[in-house]
Every structure is written in C-alpha cells, then in structure tokens.
Amino acid sequence: MARKEGDDSHISKGRANLMKFALVSLGLPPSQSGQSLVLYHLLKDFKPDQYCLITQKNFHLYGSQGNGSSRLPGRYHYINPDYQIIRGMLSFASAAHSKGILNILLKMRIHQLRTIIRQEKCEAVVACTGDLFDPPAAYQVSKSLGIPYILYAFDHYSHQWMSPLLHDFALKHERQLIPGAAEVIVPNEFLHQEYRRAYGVEATVLHNPCDLSQYRADQGFDGTERKRETTILYTGAIYEAHYDAFQNLVRALRSLDRPEVRLHIYTPQSESKLRVNGISGGFITYHKNQPIFTMPEIQQKADMLFLPLAFNSPYPEIVKTASPGKMGELLAARRPVLVHAPADSFVSWYFKQHSCGLVVAENDPAELAKGIEALIEDGDLRRNLSKAAYARAKEDFDDITIKRKFTNLLAAQCTG
C-alpha cells in the first residue's frame, strides 16, 4: 500500500541508501514533452548505475525536435513494437471492440519489461502514466519479481483514454495497481484527493520541478513602465486541451481593439494547424518552438504569461486534475500570469488559492478582456501577482527540493 500522509521517517536516508530502479515511461529525455522534462530534472544528478530507462521503440524520434532537454546518462532500453504500430493496433482494437488484442499487447509488454528488469538487476520499478500498458505491465512484473512498485501518475491514468474499450481496460487495472503500489506520486493536490476518494490511498504530491536558477532576479516584479507593445506570451503545446480557451483569447483581443497588445506563441504545432482551430489574427506572432534553455529569457521579457485550459474538451476529468509542465516556469518568471481555465480545475484553484495570478474562470471572452485590461492598467496588481508567483515557485516547484523528496521516497523503499 502507498504510505500514509506525513510519514517522513526515512527523509534523511537519501541517495546513499538508494536501490537501483527501472523507470518506465513513454516520454523520456530528450523527447519534447512536459513529462520528459520533469524526469530530466529528477534524474539528471543520479549516477548512471542507479537506474535504467525503458520506453517504446522510436517514440523519442517522434517526440523530439532538437529542443527538448539533454539525454540522461543512464542506460536506455527500447521495447517493441514501434510506437506508431502500437497506436495503430489500439485504434484497430477500439474499432473492433477487441479485448483480446489488448490482453496480447499487455502480455508482450510484461514479458519485455520482466526481461529488462531482471537483466538490469533492478530492485524497484517506477511506472509513469502516458501509455496504456506501462503501468499495469510494470505492476505485474513487480509482483512476479517481489520488488516495490511505484506509480508516477502525471495524469489520471484511467481518464486518459477516450475509447470506452481502452477506458474500461485502464480502469480495471487501475483498481489493482493503485491500492497495490508501494508509492503513488501525483503532481498536484487535486489528483491526490481523487485517488484518496477512489482508493483510500495517500499519494505523495511532487509538483513538476523547475530550475529556478535559470530565472533572473533583476527581471521583476513588473514595474509600471509602459512600452510601445504589450506582450501576452504563451509557450508550449496547443491541442484539444487548450483550443476554446485560445479562441476566447482571440475574441477578447479583437474586442479590445488595442493595436499595442500582441499575442506571441511559441509552440511545436504548426501555424496552419492553429489557424484551422481558430487561433488567428493580425495581433498574433507565431514563433517556431525554441530550445528550453532560451525559455526563461523569453518568458521574463513578456508583460503577461497566458495559462489556458479548455472549457469544453474531450477529456474534462484530465483538464480538472492537470498540472501543466510549464506551471512552475510561469511562476518563476516574475511576470503576471493570466489564467483562463475552468473553475473546478487544479490550475484555477491553485492560482486563486495563492493569489499568484489573475484567474478568469468563466468561459467568456468579455470577462477575459476585462482581465487583460486590468493587468495592463494596474501596475500594483501586476507587481503583487508577480511577487506572489515567485514565492509559490520557491515553495512548491523548486527542483532542488523536489529532487530531494523523490530521492528520499525511493530510499524509503530500501527499508520496506
């Protein structure tokens, strides 16, 4: 069972007592994803012989465009079949309503993970969400080998799958692997509460880490100077979890009719795809995605940072418990954050709870326009939000603190 909240008896054990572990994740550095970046921050200081990494063959090629994090020094293992083949087989299984295909793929994954984990002589396995088979396959392997199983739930596992067949498969296995885990790690308080309610498990909250040393102290806290251009900045992926929030922003900017206000977007998605989904206008500047080491300077030059989540998406439960990987970065940048997300989401709750961003939780472009106007006109508001944001970055997202907690969590498993 996952440990009970507040049990820090092993907190001083540290890396000296750390067992060798296998980490199984679809996204691994240097692929370009928030999950990959989190894992890079957590593992970059570990010795290569303390862990091994397992992922699907060729996913790193599809997910990396040369602007992710560096590769980790530990050994990588790539399992078959190819990532794209798995995607195709899942689509076929969903269309055919074939549980048999899913069970065959799960057995294949179990066999491959067991072979690698035995070969590497790992004493624990950490399985990350993001793939349908990784969490249950790693759980079965841990049971057969008698080693601790740690679930790292970057998102709500069973709610990641829209197909009824895939959702039912994930839910069936979730009911075993969450209560049976030695530890469950979640990135926020909302998913912690959800797993407590559903399974009686006290998960460990590790907010997605951010390297605060990359953000300059002399850039804040947003003074009262007025520039020729007022910049609203977004950095990161844009897909179904964001579309209608961006569409509201476009309508809000059109209604404001302030030529000096411009939206700058840095994203791996193409300009044509954004335009097709209603993210277009003469006030938008589209940028190619940039290397992660350039993001702090880009973020700290903006007048406000936009953090959107969709109000009507195919996966409302995921939106509700989502922790965007860039959240710590936005807080660390010492710029005011404009949040446009559903009222029942973790993101809206966090920024309201800590008064560290201006939250517009209504699905209404007019309300969003009012929020933009308030940030433009009120220098005290900008300064107060920026100051509170950086305080939360230090409190909840500092990678030094989070790495220590992760290491101690692993070391605690040595004493069982």
UniProtKB/TrEMBL annotation:
<dbReference type="InterPro" id="IPR028098">
    <property type="entry name" value="Glyco_trans_4-like_N"/>
</dbReference>
<dbReference type="Pfam" id="PF13692">
    <property type="entry name" value="Glyco_trans_1_4"/>
</dbReference>
<keyword id="KW-0808">Transferase</keyword>
<dbReference type="Pfam" id="PF13439">
    <property type="entry name" value="Glyco_transf_4"/>
</dbReference>
<protein>
    <submittedName>
        <fullName>Glycosyltransferase family 4 protein</fullName>
    </submittedName>
</protein>
<dbReference type="GO" id="GO:0016757">
    <property type="term" value="F:glycosyltransferase activity"/>
</dbReference>
<feature type="domain" description="Glycosyltransferase subfamily 4-like N-terminal">
    <location>
        <begin position="110"/>
        <end position="213"/>
    </location>
</feature>
<keyword id="KW-0328">Glycosyltransferase</keyword>
